[in-house]
Automatic annotation (TrEMBL):
The protein's enzyme class: ligase
Regions crossing the membrane: none
Official protein name in the record: Glutamyl-tRNA(Gln) amidotransferase subunit A, mitochondrial
Broad class of where this protein is predominantly found: mitochondrion
Domain Amidase: 16-480
PROSITE patterns registered for this protein in UniProt: AMIDASES
Keywords from the named record: ATP-binding, Ligase, Mitochondrion, Nucleotide-binding, Protein biosynthesis
Protein localization: Mitochondrion
Origin superkingdom: Eukaryota
Enzyme Commission code(s) on record: 6.3.5.7
Highest classification ranks of the organism: Eukaryota, Fungi, Dikarya, Ascomycota, Pezizomycotina
Catalytic center residues: 56 (charge relay system), 133 (charge relay system), 157 (acyl-ester intermediate)
Annotated function: Allows the formation of correctly charged Gln-tRNA(Gln) through the transamidation of misacylated Glu-tRNA(Gln) in the mitochondria. The reaction takes place in the presence of glutamine and ATP through an activated gamma-phospho-Glu-tRNA(Gln).
Amino acid sequence: MSLLRHQAQKCLANQVTNKGLNAFITASSPDAVLRQVETASEANDSALRGRLIAVKDNICTTDLPTTCASGILRNFRSPFDATVVEKLRAAGAIVAGKTNLDEFGMGSHNVHSAFGAAYQVDAEGREVSAGGSSGGSAVAVATEQCWAALGTDTGGSVRLPAAYAGIVGFKPSYGLVSRWGVVAYANSLDTVGVLARDTAAAKQVFDAINAHDASDPTSLAPSTRSRIRAAIAARSAASNNGAGSVPLRIGVPTTYNIAELSPAVRRAWIKTLRQLRSLGHSLHAVSLPATPSALSAYYVLAPAEASSNLAKYDGVRYGTRAAGPDGDDSGVLFSATRGRGFGDEVRRRIVLGAYTLSSEAMDNYFIRAQRVRRLVQREFDAVFRAPNPLLAAAAPGQVQEDEGIDVLVCPTAPGLPPSLQALKETKPVDAYVNDVLTVPASLAGLPAVSVPVAVDGSKEQGATVGMQVIGQYGHDDLVLEVGGVVGEFKPEAA
Ligand code: GLN
């Protein structure tokens, strides 16, 4: 029996054992998977050949439904594959199934799913958060029900679940990976990301999907891609060493050292920085003062875009109609369909977004949030030593070549995964604070990876904390490379 077939069978067996964790909304049939492994093995010699890759259920596939974990799209089947799925299939990968998520990508713990929560079980047997919104993808990878998975990251939805599940979660620079066939949540922030057990696998998947796509108007043009590649090559030639082998200037954002940071996370951060320094890299404190406002700006902008995107689900053009006559004498044709078809969190976002876009609130919320977003982008550009390749000239306030930093290193989430029970006792909006460390890179469209770092404290023995590496736009490979180094770190002897 071939090795690939053996690995596929192992994943299929793990899907059965871990079914209770609810990682998949729809799994591919085992027979179909094994048949595809056989054909893929003969056809192709890419790194993804015969590999089982799970796909978040807001990414369209023709052979399986695409529900977005919602009631309204419960029966939706796409007539086409998303470009990313097409690319994976062309590389010989096999879609393992469609993974659970927070409805339409809105949430941080994968508890807002019309198909029930995806979750994990900790060392003490407690049911704990899988993170969200790509919680199903994270659980599927962590429990080896697949080799890797696709997720989407609008404000942290790949990085946060990866941090909670102890795996790698990579969000590429905005615009590198096609969003065609990916159900929109907030277009200006949405990215397709990768969840995997190590950075090498994440890079293999990323390489297969990182390409211009004419069907996606926000896909980065081939000419810009080559310009960025040339600039990076020139910089690394000038420093006469390959990236990663030169001592790097590591930025430590002091503004990310927030009061909510749990002691275990802070300890892991300090250890990571110490280990980076012991490898010869230098550490530099940087201040990104807009960080606290970034979260509020995100929670104005993302719901605003969402309320507009979700307007099409009305049971007429898209979506499952509610039974019985819709509308009433007061006149809204689809209020019952939309009222019943969306879950609480999605309804909250639609209402919030509709309000911030209304004429009375526009200036005070939406416009201000856009300003904060610009501020966040500028602050990042002011600390990186490489200029932002999307700006024609060096941004005002751009640092000197020898003063800037190469990457930022900071935690992914303020704490360890909460138990599902604890979540029931908190208000839904309390979950928003979990995104405080991931949202800034999303607002600026920067590449960021979360890698697991061991925590050696006695209480959390065996647990890991997600450590985030953020880079300048287009420096995705460097981010993955540094992430790979950080992910190798073992806990120091106590
Ligand atoms: N938790 C954030 C939200 O609910 C991020 C979600 C995401 O990245 N899709 O909006």
